[in-house]
Specification:
The complex is a heterodimer of chains A (315) and B (492).
Chain A lengths: L1 H28 L4 H6 L5 H11 L5 H13 L13 H36 L4 H15 L2 H15 L15 H35 L2 H8 L4 H31 L1 H6 L5 H10 L3 H29 L8
Chain B lengths: L2 H20 L3 E6 L14 H7 L8 E3 L5 E3 L2 E6 L5 E6 L13 H12 L14 E8 L2 E6 L6 H4 L26 E7 L3 E6 L12 E6 L3 H9 L5 E2 L8 H5 L4 E16 L9 H10 L2 H9 L4 E2 L22 H10 L6 E7 L3 H16 L2 E7 L2 H10 L5 E6 L20 H12 L3 H17 L4 E13 L2 E2 L16 E2 L2
Parallel strand pairs in B: 1-10, 1-11, 14-15, 14-16
Antiparallel strand pairs in B: 2-3, 4-5, 5-7, 6-7, 8-9, 9-10, 11-17, 12-16, 12-17, 13-17, 18-19
Helix pairs in contact in B: 7-9, 8-10, 12-13
The chains are: A mainly alpha (315), B alpha+beta (492).
Membrane topology (chain A): Multi-pass membrane protein
Organism (chain A): Parasedimentitalea psychrophila
Subcellular location (chain A): Cell membrane
Chain lengths: 315, 492
């Protein structure tokens, strides 16, 4: 197990190194000089040159890459070109919005998906199942920004229960913070819930065909009793995998929702940074997201290996 | 006490509290773009001025809502007979928000910093004529110019010329310390900036106690933030198609004003066939301005025939020079030897005036045989390829700097217009301080570029703002990109 873990760790570090190279150079190749962007169309060439040297842009690409990676290893992500503050601090500020939002959405989607999936599996082929499956089909098909706009129209503009957007800040209390994250979390959660409910249902139905379930039924348990007592625990493995994947998706994929609700999260930071050519911020956030995804995969691999010893000898 | 009087007392108490709630002393103002940082003297971002100009930072002179220039931190000034020496007398008793006193040394520091060799001031050209700044005494500062500059007082009103102090300069990007009626309180990046009333302000104090700027870039989100009454005003509302809805709603007022933004079809004057004035004239006559304004801006915008703001006292209406006449355009093309038309490129930056307007322009050009290939670009890309690289045929952009007709005297500028006569006229204008003579020269300048068809002149960008009905004192025009809230209050 230790050897397997070390091997996995090595490949994780290698992936991160390759990712950092690709991210840095792909973003640097895109046209547009950050300094002339900031100074606009009236700036004189010597002013642009002065700003370039102030930002360190006059160094070679490789020197800047080495600086960036060297700093990141020590937790220093560099200084934003436009905001002129440490990128690490900006990212952690934004994570205080994006992480709770992703978690909130994940909890909501689980709360919706579990009962829906179990209900549908228990009533396979009946009207209830068809209704749940129809609803999830809709949930998968309709984009979440459309949900978001509908929620704003109904609950913010008409009913005035929520603000149309913005973030109250955690300094104003947990409730105020959660209140401003509720509509965004619901719009993120609905499509996720639809996917999760479908996975839950099919996982349960697969389990129902297994030998141990037939044994349980043979011992006199009803279909539903067998599902609750033996099926659910076994069906959780594929469902948890999906939840893990969804979390990193929610963290990275909230860009549009953060635009619709003008939330100061990670997605909005990347959006602003891209349009302002704040390369170092874009590179660092993308790197962080890659790191999150790779690490989650690493942990999932380790968890699988712990559960299933056969996997340890592969690769 | 009878039940009836109890109810009366209760209801009048309620009315009192309701009255107190109406007399608000704070405001939430939304705008599209967030400032990258808070130093107006080292970036071109208009969003920095939008938050800080006049509110937090002040210059020696300042713009008013109608675009006029009035004394600011300089109470008065004397100009020497040769127009080379300006002696400014500073306002007495001005302190910065950190308690330090404003004196002539701060003015010298600010102007020297802006024009220094390693300066990152985006409008360094404003200070190019300054030869020397000397401190006469604590309240007096003398600025000597290398050559006379009739727009010097105007230049000093720009946000890029505000007065800063050496004591607080190091942290200006995150903690701006100015002399204005509001002081900086807090910035939650990505969300809002809070300002507080400056109790020690030297001039007329602000009416409001606190001000919050919110940043909402998405047009749909902008609409819902106003409709849900999350914000009290939206300055520079990004979706003109929603304006009629606000106009019909008694909860809101709509302010329609003018900006300094001349929206033009910039033309590469060095690239064939645009190096032929007949071709440029043909392009000008092929364009129907009103249908561009209607189609792209939902009717908001003023047609222009030269590079000058219609609200300026020196403005001349030259739209007649380039009236919509596709037949004439075709004839001009034939005269230029291009009877079958030609193909060119049309680069369009992100704002909707360019993207939507560009589609209409391309369709109108096609009517006379000019095939303009539309290339959508991001701002950074536009700066790189069009502005610096000059590899383009046509492009659409709004030039928002105030009074910037001087760019036509710079042959290296991206539309590459090289006219010695015009360049001399601009030097004359710079050397002239007499207001009447200046107006005559500016009118001559407008006429020259209009008759040379340097660019296609489309329309002056409108400034659209929506506010709650009770808000008063907002600027409707945008003579500079400021949201001056020093005189804003709520109606009782």
């Amino acid at each position: 197990m230790i050897r397997y873990s070390l091997k996995r760790l090595l490949s994780l570090i290698l992936s991160l190194a390759v990712a950092s190279l690709v991210i840095f150079f792909v973003i640097e190749i895109a046209p547009g000089d950050p300094a002339s962007f900031m100074l606009g169309i009236n700036a004189q060439p010597d002013t642009v040159a002065a700003l370039r040297s102030e930002l360190g842009l006059d160094q070679s690409k490789f020197a800047r890459y080495a600086d960036w990676v060297g700093g990141m290893v020590q937790g220093d992500f560099g200084t934003s070109y436009t905001y002129r503050t440490p990128v690490a601090g900006m990212i952690s500020d934004r994570l205080w919005v994006s992480l709770p939002l992703a978690l909130y959405a994940l909890i909501l989607s689980t709360l919706i998906a579990f009962p829906a999936g179990i209900y549908a599996a228990a009533r396979r082929g009946k009207t209830g199942d068809m209704a749940v499956m129809g609803a999830t089909q809709l949930g998968v098909a309709v984009p979440n920004f459309w949900f978001a706009m509908m929620l704003v129209l109904i609950f913010a503009i008409n009913l005035r229960w929520f603000n149309a957007g913005g973030f109250a800040g955690w300094d104003n209390g947990l409730l105020a913070g959660l209140h401003s994250l509720t509509l965004p979390a619901i719009s993120l959660a609905l499509p996720q819930a639809a996917i999760l409910a479908r996975v839950m249902r099919s996982a349960l139905l697969d389990i129902l065909g297994e030998d141990f379930m037939r044994t349980a039924r043979a011992k006199g348990l009803s279909r539903r009793q067998a599902l609750w007592r033996h099926g659910l625990r076994n069906a959780l493995i594929p469902v948890l995998t999906i939840i893990g994947l969804q979390f990193s998706f929610l963290l990275a994929g909230a860009i549009i929702i953060e635009q619709v609700f003008y939330l100061p999260g990670l997605g909005r930071l990347v959006f602003q940074a891209i349009s302002a050519r704040d390369l170092i911020v874009v590179e660092s956030v993308v790197m962080l997201l890659v790191f999150a995804v790779i690490t989650v995969n690493f942990l999932v691999d380790l968890a699988y290996a712990a559960v299933d010893p056969r996997l340890r000898n592969r690769t | 006490m009878s039940i009836k009087s109890l109810i009366l007392a209760a209801s009048s108490a309620l009315a009192l509290t309701a009255g107190a709630a109406v007399a608000k002393d704070s405001i939430i103002v939304a705008m599209q773009l967030e400032p990258p940082h808070l130093d107006p003297t080292s970036a071109a971002a208009g969003a920095i001025d939008s938050v800080l100009y006049s509110n937090v930072f002040e210059g020696l002179t300042r713009f008013m809502g109608d675009g006029s220039v009035v004394p600011g931190l300089a109470a008065s000034w004397d100009i020497s007979g040769d127009g080379l020496t300006y002696t400014f007398n500073l306002q007495a008793g001005v302190t910065f928000h950190d308690g330090t006193t404003l004196d002539a040394g701060d003015v010298k520091f600010s102007l020297d910093r802006a024009r220094a060799e390693d300066s990152t001031n985006a409008q360094k050209a404003l200070f190019a004529d300054i030869a020397d700044v000397t401190v006469v005494d604590a309240q007096t500062v003398k600025v000597t110019l290398a050559e006379p500059n009739g727009s010097f007082l105007f230049n000093l009103a720009w946000g890029d010329a505000v007065i800063v102090a050496p004591e607080s300069i190091d942290n200006i990007k995150t903690n701006p310390i100015g002399t204005g009626a509001f002081k900086f309180a807090n910035w939650m990046q990505g969300d809002r900036i809070d300002l507080q009333k400056n109790a020690d302000y030297w001039g007329t104090p602000a009416v409001l106690n606190s001000v919050t700027f919110k940043f909402i870039s998405d047009p749909t989100a902008a609409f819902s933030s106003v409709m849900a009454e999350d914000v009290d005003a939206f300055i520079g509302f990004p979706a003109p198609e929603n304006i009629p809805q606000f106009e019909a709603d008694p909860r809101f007022q709509v302010l329609v004003g003018s900006t300094e933004g001349e929206t033009i079809l910039s033309t590469n004057n060095k690239q064939a066939p645009f190096d032929n004035v007949l071709v440029r004239q043909a392009v000008a006559h092929a364009i129907d301005r009103q249908s561009i304004i209607d189609g792209a801006m939902f009717g908001y915008g003023t047609p222009i025939g030269s590079h000058f703001a219609p609200h300026n006292p020196a403005y001349v209406d030259l739209t007649g020079n380039s009236a919509y006449d596709p037949e004439k355009a075709k004839a001009l093309l034939a005269e230029a030897g291009l009877a079958d038309g030609f193909a060119t490129t049309l680069h369009l930056p992100p704002p909707s005036y360019a993207r939507r307007g560009g589609e209409i322009v391309a369709a109108q050009l096609a009517q006379v045989g000019i095939k303009a290939e539309i290339i959508n670009v991001e701002w950074a890309q536009w700066l790189e390829t069009v502005f610096r690289g000059k590899t383009f045929g046509l492009t659409i952009i709004s030039h928002t700097e105030p009074m910037d007709i001087g760019i036509y005297a710079r042959p290296e500028y991206y539309f590459q217009y090289d006219n010695k006569g015009f360049q001399e006229l601009m030097s004359d204008l710079n050397a002239t301080t007499d207001p009447d003579k200046r107006i005559a020269l500016m009118q001559q300048a407008q006429t020259i570029i209009s008759e040379d068809y340097v660019n296609g002149y489309l329309f002056q960008l409108a400034q659209l703002s929506v506010a709650k009905a009770g808000v008063q004192g907002l600027w409707s025009n945008a003579p500079t990109q400021a949201t001056d809230l020093t005189a804003v209050s709520w109606a009782d």
